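Quick one, tokens below:
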């Protein structure tokens, strides 16, 4: 993952080195005792300076926000209290009060809250917890989550998923000191694995952003505890087990395809299934296919997962009329008209769920998905002894080897059409 490039105003070149700089608002200059923040980034490389400056600027902006009295995490009592403690600490430091005196005074207030009027010791401990964090004894893991994601350049959908995983972790381990290697290992493998049934791959994916966040705290927020994520997972299996092989996605055969169409009462979904079977396209590719990339004899996939996926696919004779009808009746510029976007701009999400309900109603398990049509597409071409390079061109796979991979511009449309015409989802002997 990468950090976004910084604005030039945050960098200053001086004495053959780069410095981070941030002007302090006029109203707060007396509070901080200076007109701007300035710190050496200890490098003469602009690219390295760019990678180091953002966390520094973010910390300064947080200090400014605290000095202004802004609440962080207004729905989180501990974060709100922590902001107030930091603000109080800043105010007294600006007057020259030593840190140990500031802390003693704050802890007296916290103790008074805890003891209560009747001296029973059943009051809140939130203030005491906030003081411990503010003075460096504890690292509150959830404090810097927003700042961390503001610096990451990832797709919104990925960011949302990573944030959910990270917040699940910090809810389980509020403080960095709580996250020992033994406790993290047990949580990941016993709680998430054995009790909740999450796969090893899912658990590895969940811990990945947490580990990156831990490194961020170590590099920018003074976290000194060792990473608790070392060797917490069981070793990867060298050989695939029988269960793993059986769990692989299976391909739809002709009889499966026909069974789906007979049971489908959704016209748009039926068109999607037909297009998927005769084009070999992924569901996302078909749902994002615009009319400008549809021709009388071919479609151009220009929004694929990889560069190899950008390809031209001849329109099979069996779907020529279907494609023509969809083009003539489209009301929104897409071949499959009327689909809705989800929050990430994906048009395939809702109709994909409709397909899932359809195939489940017919008794197909988790090993059969829309992608199974794509696998059936590949299976038919393989059985027709179509060359691997031709199949790869049609499906948008990488071509291995120098000759075909790096120098060939692809097969002419005629050769691709000859290959795709071997498909036949109507013949029961396929």
């Amino acid at each position: 993952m990468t950090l976004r490039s910084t604005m030039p105003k945050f960098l200053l070149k001086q004495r053959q080195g780069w410095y981070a700089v941030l002007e302090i608002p006029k109203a707060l200059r007396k509070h901080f005792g200076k007109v701007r923040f300035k710190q050496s980034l200890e490098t003469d490389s602009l690219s390295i300076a760019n990678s180091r400056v953002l966390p520094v600027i973010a910390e300064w902006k947080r200090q400014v926000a605290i000095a202004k009295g802004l609440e962080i995490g207004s729905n989180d009592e501990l974060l709100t209290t922590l902001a107030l403690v930091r603000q109080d600490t800043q105010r007294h430091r600006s007057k020259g009060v030593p840190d140990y005196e500031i802390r003693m005074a704050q802890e007296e207030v916290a103790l008074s809250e805890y003891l209560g009027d009747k001296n029973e010791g059943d009051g809140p401990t939130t203030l005491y917890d906030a003081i411990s964090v503010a003075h460096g004894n504890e690292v509150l893991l959830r404090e810097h989550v927003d700042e961390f994601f503001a610096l990451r350049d990832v797709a919104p959908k990925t960011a949302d998923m990573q944030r959910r995983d990270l917040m699940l972790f910090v809810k389980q381990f509020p403080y960095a000191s709580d996250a020992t290697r033994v406790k993290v290992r047990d949580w990941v493998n016993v709680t998430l694995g054995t009790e909740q049934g999450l796969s090893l791959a899912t658990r590895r994916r969940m811990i990945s952003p947490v580990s990156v966040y831990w490194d961020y705290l170590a590099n920018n927020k003074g976290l000194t505890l060792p990473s608790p994520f070392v060797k917490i997972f069981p070793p990867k299996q060298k050989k695939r087990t029988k269960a793993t092989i059986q769990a692989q996605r299976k391909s739809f055969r002709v009889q499966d395809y026909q069974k789906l169409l007979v049971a489908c009462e959704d016209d748009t979904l039926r068109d999607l299934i037909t297009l998927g079977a005769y084009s070999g396209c992924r569901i996302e590719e078909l749902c994002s296919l615009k009319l400008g990339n549809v021709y009388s004899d071919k479609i151009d996939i220009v929004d694929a997962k990889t560069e190899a996926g950008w390809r031209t696919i001849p329109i099979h004779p069996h779907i020529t009329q279907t494609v023509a009808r969809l083009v003539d009746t489209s009301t929104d510029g897409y071949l499959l008209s009327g689909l809705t976007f989800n929050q990430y701009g994906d048009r395939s999400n809702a109709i994909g769920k409709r397909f899932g309900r359809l195939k489940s109603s017919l008794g197909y398990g988790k090993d059969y998905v829309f992608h199974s049509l794509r696998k059936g597409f590949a299976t038919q071409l393989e059985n027709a002894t179509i060359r691997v390079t031709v199949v790869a061109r049609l499906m948008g796979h990488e071509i291995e080897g120098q000759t075909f991979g790096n120098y060939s511009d692809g097969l002419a449309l005629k050769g691709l059409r000859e290959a795709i015409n071997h498909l036949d989802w109507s013949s029961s002997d396929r």
